[in-house]
Amino acid sequence: IGLEIKSSIPAEKHFSRSSLKALAVIAIIGGVIRGGEGLIALGDFTIQKDDYIVVCCLPTSIKRVEKLFL
Length: 70
Known about the structure:
Blueprint (H helix, E strand, L loop, with lengths): L2 E3 L11 H10 E8 L2 E3 L12 E6 L4 H8 L1
């Protein structure tokens, strides 16, 4: 069970390494679609404007994940 972010990341959203590390505590980024290419988010991966992201998390974490992305 999880949450899939189907919309692209808006330009005004900025993700630092610290915010992605905080996300790792409550969820897993399953993959990213950038320019039609599927990518796996590892290590120092940076989320960019218009990326499509698949996030897996427990139902209890969905609201916290939504606040980061939406």
